[in-house]
Specification:
The chain has 18 helices and 24 strands. The strands form six sheets. The chain has a seven-stranded mixed sheet with strand order 9-8-19-20-21-18-22. A five-stranded mixed sheet has the order 1-14-13-12-16. The protein has three domains: 9-83 and 254-330 and 444-491, FAD/NAD(P)-binding domain (3-Layer(bba) Sandwich), CATH 3.50.50.60; 88-128 and 245-252 and 335-430, Alpha-Beta Complex (Polyamine Oxidase, Chain A, domain 2); 162-238, no CATH class. The chain is α/β, with parallel strands linked by helices. The longest helix is centred in the last third of the chain and has 18 residues, at 474-491. Bound molecules: flavin-adenine dinucleotide. Flavin-adenine dinucleotide (FAD) binds at residues 53-59, 76-79, 84-86, 102-105, 273-274, 305-307, 310, 314, 336, 338, 428, 433-434, 437-438, 464-465, 472-477.
């Protein structure tokens, strides 16, 4: 498909028809006829129209599904690339190495990831690594740790287990749950407590909370005092653990959003940050920046697939319902940083190495061999760090972040500094189009926030990982896009 043509305003209006009407609010040079950079391709004036905000996986999946169903779609995206939090860095590295600086793992149970990859001709590879643990200065190889039921240096823990140690302190409450779909009031009210408050109430030692910080809270990119106790109890059986089977898209996850965006061709308009949404019973008008001007598009149906952390600063008129407005303003997002370190040698694969993927209480939190599908001898060691550690590193310059990362890696692999060549850092909290990692269920947010986040407001529909039962994942973002596309069609009586 060709990229969009440049056209003048009159041509644009006549070609896009009456349903999606462009109007201009000139903020400068009012007498100059502004040119329109891109227009929805192949949209006949009679077809049904949907405007989608955000070209992350959620917005792209929604647009892709709606296009398949015969809708004319236009996507507005603030960045100059598709994919949002799916971001593969290639250029900073030698020898064709690449690194996922955002979403990485595709679980074997992530049905939407697998479905879209299959449909778009992408392969998912499994990335099983030799695991290890490095906490409080002690080293454990995962296989022997489990087999010999070794004990972690944390009070109140069971031997041979890393993730899920908090479960022993939740037994009384878990016994009250007969049907996970119908939680009793005693369980629902746990939403008013934090993970820390509940664990202390149930007699867990501080060490259990400390360990939770490096296991489940790291995965959620949150801090235990901010996380809902209801979330912990409810998600406890299906949480990430050292046993989770992980994979990745062979050759880089960015191929998935790029393939979706290609299939939409000129219908994705980049570098168009949305600033204002006005909605009414007939549809919505969206105001966005384009070449220094504020432009608006009117649409009969709007899909908002922008993270709530950003949406809270976009003017909405009239305001959405009080519940939605509160949810947008307060939904919790975590802190996350990924640090990709290029080393000339893969010392982590050598016989004396502790492991290829190490769960630690150092500032690196989880550090692992990234470049498993790429030939050596060079390789990338990746750190996924979150919560307070990501925030602390966020105060440093990029060079200092890398220096600390190598220093921390040296505690696990003493030879690290000798082989370090350089690296790249992505701190998502300083990215203006997300300002955080992903959503999590904060205190008071695990009961009804998900339903509120996903509910439409008149002709405005909502997608994004934060609206999905599979939140905080690519799978959830895709699921929300599919769900919202069906919701739009149902609302249109299709
Ligand atoms: C470090 C990190 C690691 C992760 N690891 C994994 C993992 O291993 N596995 C996994 O499945 N998931 C992982 N995730 C989560 C996954 O990346 C997200 O859940 C998913 O990509 C979110 O997609 P989305 O479309 O909902 O949001 P986004 O990807 O954030 O897309 C939203 C889009 O809206 C755009 N936008 C924002 N504001 C505006 C505006 N004003 N105007 C126009 N456009 C705007 C943004 O630029 C963006 O493109 C990780 C995320 C991070 C940050």
């Amino acid at each position: 498909m060709t990229l969009a043509r440049r056209m003048n305003r009159r041509t644009f209006l006549s070609e896009t028809g009456k349903t999606l009407v462009a109007s201009w609010t000139a903020v400068a040079a009012a007498s100059v006829e502004p040119s329109i950079a891109e227009s929805p391709a192949n949209v006949s004036s009679g077809s049904r129209q949907v405007l989608v905000l955000g070209a992350g996986l959620a917005g792209l999946a929604a647009a892709y599904e709606l296009k398949k169903a015969g809708y004319g779609v236009t996507v507005l995206e603030a960045r100059t690339r598709p994919g949002g939090r799916v971001l593969t860095y290639r250029d900073p590295f030698a020898d064709g190495l690449y690194a996922e600086m955002g979403a990485e793992y595709v679980d074997s149970t992530d049905e939407y990831d697998h479905r879209f990859c299959q449909e778009l001709g992408l392969k998912v590879m499994t990335a099983k690594l030799y695991d290890a643990i490095f906490v409080r200065g002690q080293r454990f190889k995962m296989a022997s740790f489990k087999q010999n039921k070794e004990k972690l240096p944390y009070a109140g823990t069971e031997g041979g287990r890393l993730f899920g140690q908090e479960a022993a302190y939740l037994r009384r409450l878990l016994a009250l749950i007969a049907d996970p779909e119908k939680l009793p009031p005693e369980i629902l009210k746990l939403d008013n407590l934090s993970v820390v408050e509940l664990l202390l109430q149930e007699g867990a030692p501080q060490d259990i909370i400390a360990l939770y910080t490096y296991t489940q809270a790291t995965e959620s990119t949150a801090r235990p005092p901010e996380m809902s106790a209801l979330h912990m109890v409810r998600s406890h059986r299906r949480s990430f653990s050292e046993d989770t089977d992980e994979g990745r898209i062979l050759g880089g996850n960015d191929q998935l959003p790029k393939a979706l965006a290609r299939s939409l061709s000129g219908q994705v308009l980049y570098n168009r940050p949305v600033r204002r949404i006005a909605h009414d019973p007939e549809g919505a008008e969206v105001f966005f920046e384009e070449g220094g001007l504020l432009r608006s598009l009117r649409t009969p149906r709007l899909v908002v697939a922008i993270p709530f952390k950003v949406l809270r600063d976009i003017e909405v008129a009239p305001s959405f319902s009080p519940a939605k407005t509160k949810c947008i303003a307060t939904l919790a997002y975590g802190h996350v940083m990924k640090i990709a370190m290029q080393y000339e040698r893969r010392f982590w694969d050598e016989p004396d190495s502790l492991g290829q993927r190490v769960f630690t209480d150092t500032m690196l939190r989880r550090v692992y061999h990234f470049s498993v599908d790429q030939p050596g001898p060079r390789g990338i060691l990746m750190s996924f760090t979150s919560g307070a550690d990501a925030e602390a590193l966020g105060w440093l310059t990029e060079a200092e972040r890398l220096r600390v990362a190598v220093q921390e890696a040296t505690k696990i692999w003493p030879e690290a500094p000798r082989h370090f060549e350089g690296g790249a850092v992505k701190y998502w909290n300083e990215d203006p189009w997300i300002r955080g990692s992903y959503s999590f269920e904060g205190v008071g947010q695990a009961r009804d926030y998900l339903q509120i986040a996903a509910a439409p407001e008149g002709r405005v529909h909502f997608a994004g990982e934060h609206t999905s039962i599979h939140r905080a994942s690519m799978n959830g973002a895709l699921e929300s896009g599919v769900r919202v596309a069906a919701e739009v069609q149902k609302a249109e009586g299709a």
